[in-house]
Amino acid sequence: MSKKEKAQKDKEEIKDQVEEAIDHAIDEVEESEESNVEENETSEGEFSEEERLKEDLQKEKDKFLRLFAEFENYKRRTAKERLDLFKTANQEVMTAMLPVLDDFDRAMNELKKSGDENLMKGVELIHNKLKETLRAKGLERVEVEKGDSFDAEKHEAITQIPAPSDDLKGKIVDVVEPGYKLGERIIRYPKVVTGQ
Fold first, then answer.
1. Is 164 in a helix, a strand, or coil?
2. What are the protein's UniProt keywords (predicted)?
């Protein structure tokens, strides 16, 4: 059984125990109300005592429910903080791996020029394995191509050059360095050259 399943099971057991305790307390109150109704009919002095006891019981139930709700909120908050911590730790590792991935891409381009097929196949296997491992951990390449519209929120412009054609004005002319995102968060923006 995984830690996550065990934590879920423990949470359900605690919740069940709390619900049973609340049900038991409600049953006791109802039983005492029924017996007290009969007693109250006989004496008016006991009625005020019964009301006071009911009020005390209600206050204790409210206090218990608030404490339980506060505990549930605490558990949710700490679980969220733990997930955020794991994501942040993963982001630091992924950011450190990006230069290695870039070097690997450059090495692949140079090997293609050399023409050595056996060397190329071996290095390509390792390259693909590295990319797949990083992808499995949530790293994705930001897709940017020549001719895409430049968006300052998604791209980092390194320089502007005169557009080779009119249709590339204000658009991406070249991608200097690819960008990557981890989940939905961009951890490195693609570095591009734009046409003016």
1. coil
2. Chaperone, Cytoplasm, Stress response
Find the radius of gyration of the CA atoms of the chain. Answer: 33
Q: Which CATH superfamily is domain 140-196 in?
A: Head domain of nucleotide exchange factor GrpE (2.30.22.10)
Q: What is the 3-state secondary structure (H, E, C) of 7-37?
A: HHHHHHHHHHHHHHHHHHHHHHHHHHHHHHH
pTM of the full predicted structure?
0.54
Kind of pairing between the strands at 156-161 and 191-195: parallel
Q: Domain coordinates of the chain in residue numbers?
A: 3-92, 140-196
Tens place of pLDDT per residue across the chain (196 aa): 566 677 677 777 777 787 787 777 777 767 766 665 555 554 445 568 888 999 999 999 999 999 999 999 999 999 998 887 777 678 888 889 999 999 998 988 888 888 888 888 988 999 999 999 999 988 899 999 888 888 888 899 998 998 888 888 888 999 999 999 988 888 999 999 998 8
Strands (E) across 76-152 are located at 139-142
Helix (H/G/I), strand (E/B), else coil: 154: coil
